[in-house]
Amino acid sequence: MLNTFCKTKTFKIIIGKRDELGVCMITLINPDSNTEVLSKLDFKTPPIGLAYIASVLRENGFNVRIIDNVVEKLDLNEIIRRIRDSVVVGITTTTPTFNTALKYAKKIKQALENVFVVLGGIHVSFLPYSALKYEFVDAVCISEGEYTMLELAEKIERGKSPEGVKGLIYKENGKIVDNGRRDFIRDLDSLPFPAYDLLPLEKYSILGQKLEHFPMMSSRGCPFSCRYCASSLFMGKRFRARSAENVVDEMEWLQDKFGAKYIAFSDDTFTLSKKRVEKICNEVKGRCLDVEWSCSSRVDTINEELIKKMKSAGCNCIYYGVESANPKILNDYYRKKISLGQVTTAVKKTKENDIQTVCSFIIGAPMETKEDMMKTLKFSIKLNPDYAQYSILTPYPGTEIYREAKEKGWLLTENFDEYTCGKPVLKNFYLTPREISKFLRYCYMRFYLRPRFIFKEIKNKNIKIMFEIIKKLLFRSGDDNG
Fold first, then answer.
1. Do 436 and 428 form a contact (C-beta atoms < 8 A)?
2. Which of 5, 164, 275, 368 is the most exposed, having the fewest neighbouring CB atoms within 10 Å of its CB?
3. Which helix (H) or strand (E) holds 13?
4. Cβ contacts of residue 140 below 8 Å, gap of 6+?
């Protein structure tokens, strides 16, 4: 069926191409990413946010496809060939993929001028007008996208304007119209499970190994106010959690339908409610579910009793955000509100209970000296987590650090391609960008090339993982563009 149009004032809406059953096609795209911390360790996992939006659209009668170009690596001409039947194209964006998303939107609009192009994701949720100033972007979806995209699709299917769709900012009569924020989803149990069947699961891998790890979201929202993180604003400061029964239902479903052997919870702080975690653990054990899982935790929301409970229910890895060994930077500047004593205790108790630990560390705060960074590196080695993630402080839009840096002229660039956590984009009072880049590489080499780490990996029969890490570190060590 050929596209036809109706007009609301001067706003043209597609009554779009449909299949033989009269159902519109919605395409969701995850553009190629250059995020250095993930590429350094070769993490390629399914985009859970798009999978949730797709599942809600499909449950409500729409045809949906997902193109994850992080793993599919299609050129834009091939993408356009695939999406010619689409009525709406949604492109998700992070800060480092924003410019790539704009390229996709421009090319798609040039080739398919009647397609309604929406950008969504964390970056445009905080800087919507940076996208809407381009004629090839029709709208921006703010924050949670499931029901905003559904309501938009329903409006367009009926040939109506997006007027009144909460969570959407769009263009009409040459002006930008802000429909206002949509309330956050209170009942997360009401969401259908992610549409992973729409993704090329055979193309995902972790450290070169076939995907048996699946991401899972058991809660949204974060009540904390870390200055380098925008999560509490993007998903709200109110902690919203799924029931233990619903969480374990999905764990069973992932295992039965996709052969999942490992679940990686993507919650900001999985352990915020100890009582809920205990219920999840009891539910897993009550169903005799044989699946391993990992999660993120603050060091001050966990104790040994909970760690033991989690271990008994299959938890084999906990990710802790440590960030800095300088208490002033950690708590005065980052506003993390934890102590190094709490860090040491949490990591020690976790390791004693045979759960792997991954700890993250940040270097490059404006007032941070080389001695401060060395102190953080030495602390990370003394702490001796199983794995460490080092990154350069990156002032992402939406964070307090971004607002401060912009006001004070501390941003070295606003080319968001550089906002990868692996490149200095924020002024440091003592070190050059090149020196910070070199120190980041030194952190990775110093931690992962230790004999202690290598022997541990050999003992634990993680030889393949160890060689993948070392190969990537050695290969990238010569890449000095700092």
1. yes
2. 275
3. strand 11-15
4. 118, 119, 120, 124, 125, 128, 131, 132, 168, 169, 170
Q: pLDDT digit string (tens) for 255-266?
A: 999 999 999 999
Q: What does pTM read for this prediction? A: 0.91
Q: Look up residue 351 and give its two tokens.
A: 């390791």
431: left (phi over 0), alpha (psi -120 to 50) or beta: beta
Q: How confident is the model at residue 13 (pLDDT cuts 50, 70, 90)?
A: very low
Q: Strand, coil or helix: what is 231?
A: helix
3-state SS, residue 134 = coil
The DSSP output letter for 191 is: S
pLDDT tens-digit profile of 226-272? 999 998 889 999 999 999 999 999 999 999 999 999 999 999 999 99
> Where do the domains of the chain lie, and which CATH numbers do they carry?
4-178 (3.40.50.280), 212-477 (3.20.20.70)
Q: Which residues share a beta bridge with 411?
A: 426
Pairing status of strand 292-297 against strand 262-265: parallel
Beta strands in 97-167 (DSSP E): 116-120, 139-141
CB-based contacts of 113: which residues, under 8 Å, 6+ apart?
none
Angle at 447 between CA 443 and CA 451, to 5 degrees: 145
Backbone CA torsion sign across 158, 163, 166, 172 = positive
Lowest mean pLDDT segment, chosen from 26-35, 154-163, 293-302, 454-463: 454-463
CA distance linking residue 400 with residue 419, whole number of Å:
16
